[in-house]
Specification:
Strand content: 15-25%
Number of strands: 22
Helix content: 25-40%
Bound molecules: nicotinamide-adenine-dinucleotide
Number of helices: 16
Largest sheet: 7 strands, mixed
Radius of gyration: 23 Å
Length: about 475
């Protein structure tokens, strides 16, 4: 693909229209493959923040007043438009994030469309229930929460905008979404498409900015719910700010997830799982299985096959569909990863692949593998969020499970074994929200996604998300005489 012109029509999308306010701080959009600035947007000023919230607040009543089927129809139309424009949207996502087109074509606008289609389809069947109590009865009404704020990370900008927007809108809420300042482009496209599909003005708004804009949204009294995808430190701040106003939250935070590979695993599949769980999107995936526990009997074969297959990674122009591994999102993120690699070496881990920034423009770190990693090393304890895989050895199941759980995070976990009883037993004991047996990192919209422990609160996707974007009103209906004590 030739490099697309990714410049947006304006920085924000409010009340059904593009809005510019160049008094806001400029934000450069940098193409990670070359380091060039390819577009510019402006952060929201307090007036823009207020305009977006006002618009979403105003739109609430009418949107909630539609039937679920009517709302769902808008979402399903948006899904169709998104699929028709997949190539264009994928090009923009590649420019914004650096992720190769071979990935963005299948994982970004497509997964956003899946969410719009799924929650669009669910719209008409969101109901309360009836509870008979003798002749009296209770019925519950599933009501929207109100104005929801979505705040995104930079690794899956289109997907995050839709994973939050689709269930919110299906349940009758409106949304103000703030993408990460590192990747401001794609959420604007989601807003445009929803509007084209028939979402009334104000139902889905996008404003730009860094943490201060996010913080202004989170503490606004008009806001009923905040859904954040980001790091644990940001999650702590956002959760605390939301608590001030007793707001609902969904927190999709970081992880340091374990992937357990037993001696009886299919080694080729296990290597494939480790590659998917460490190097897709250049390792910038929250659910990655970055602590790869390999049972001692299979360790050397695992490392041999991993090294051989890493030789097939194609690091090149992300817009060339033959490229399978792209740059990191930013200079800043690359430096963070370089620091972790230096710590890994200093603390005695054995570097077996990668580890050095590529001498070319842009932010390139090749797939990096450490062996002989031990539990106390910094690279085994902290989220790196880059293409760094750590191999840790283990002897037996109990030991592997207890070491795998020895982390404050609890986002994901995986196990590779041909013994399915063991697979289920081990997964049952691992403390994580999103788990895989004999595969890794597949997150279809039909499955709940989210973390336990410090990795988050709430679930995205699946029917479970409905509970996080709606509330039940309970109505007791008395059918007989009222019995009062006096
Ligand atoms: P980040 O925490 O730096 O920023 C996330 C978002 O929060 C950004 O939009 C940022 O502007 C905003 N923000 C920062 N401070 C804020 C504040 N005080 N109030 C309100 N908003 C604020 O995260 P990042 O670097 O963009 O993304 C990487 C992190 O996200 C990693 O930790 C990764 O694991 C996590 N992540 C989690 C998931 C998940 O679903 N669990 C998915 C993707 C990424």
């Amino acid at each position: 693909m030739r490099r697309p012109d990714a410049r947006p029509k304006a920085s924000h999308f409010i009340d059904g229209a593009h809005v510019e306010d160049d008094r806001g701080a400029p934000i450069d959009v940098i193409y990670p493959a070359t380091g060039e600035t390819v577009a510019k947007v402006h952060a929201a000023t307090p007036e823009i923040v207020n305009r977006a919230l006002e618009s979403a607040d105003r739109a609430r009543k009418d949107w909630a007043g539609l039937t679920g089927t009517e709302r769902g129809r808008v979402l399903r139309r948006a899904a169709d438009i998104m699929r028709e424009r997949n190539l264009e949207l994928s090009g923009i996502e590649t420019i914004d994030t650096g992720k190769p087109l071979s990935e963005t074509l299948v994982a970004d606008a497509t997964s956003a469309a899946d969410a719009l289609e799924y929650f669009g389809g669910l719209g008409g069947s969101l109901t309360g229930e009836h509870v008979q109590l003798g002749s009296d009865f209770v019925y519950t009404v599933r009501e929207p929460l109100g104005l929801c704020v979505g705040i995104g990370a930079w690794n899956y900008p289109t997907q995050i905008a839709a994973w939050k927007g689709a269930p919110a809108l299906a349940c009758g809420n409106t949304m103000v979404f703030k993408p990460s300042e590192t990747t401001p482009l794609s959420a604007l496209k989601v807003a445009e498409i929803l509007t084209e599909a028939g979402a009334p003005p104000g139902v889905y708004n996008v404003i730009q900015g860094a943490g201060d804009v996010g913080a202004a949204l989170v503490s606004d009294p008009r806001v009923a719910k905040v859904s954040l995808t980001g790091s644990v430190p940001t999650g702590r701040k956002v959760y605390a700010a939301a608590a001030e106003g007793i707001r609902n939250v969904t927190m999709e935070l970081g992880g340091k997830s374990p992937l357990l590979i037993f001696d009886d695993a299919d080694v080729e599949d296990a290597v494939g799982g480790a590659i998917l769980g460490n190097f897709y999107s250049s390792g910038q995936v929250c659910s990655n299985g970055t602590r790869v526990f390999v049972q001692k009997g299979v360790k050397e074969r695992f490392l041999d096959r991993l090294s051989a297959r890493l030789g097939n990674a194609a690091l090149g122009d992300p817009l060339d569909e033959a490229t399978t591994f792209g740059p990191m999102v930013s200079e800043r993120q690359l430096r963070i990863v370089e620091d972790y690699i230096a710590k890994g070496i200093a603390e005695g881990a054995r570097l077996v692949a990668g580890g050095e920034r590529l001498p070319r423009d842009g932010f390139w770190m090749p797939p990096t593998v450490f062996a002989d990693v031990t539990d106390g090393m910094t690279i085994a304890r902290e989220e790196i969020f880059g293409p760094v895989l750590s191999v840790l050895d283990f002897d037996d199941e109990d030991e592997a499970v207890s070491r795998a759980n020895d982390t404050p995070f609890g986002l994901s976990a995986g196990v590779f074994t041909r013994d399915l009883a063991r697979g289920h037993r081990v997964i049952g004991r691992l403390e994580a929200g999103s788990c895989w047996i004999n595969t890794y990192n597949l997150s279809p919209v039909e499955a709940p996604f989210g973390g336990s422990k410090m990795s988050g609160v709430g679930r995205e996707n699946s029917k479970a998300a409905v509970d996080h974007y709606s509330q039940l009103k309970s109505v007791y209906v008395g059918m007989g005489p009222v019995e009062a004590p006096f």
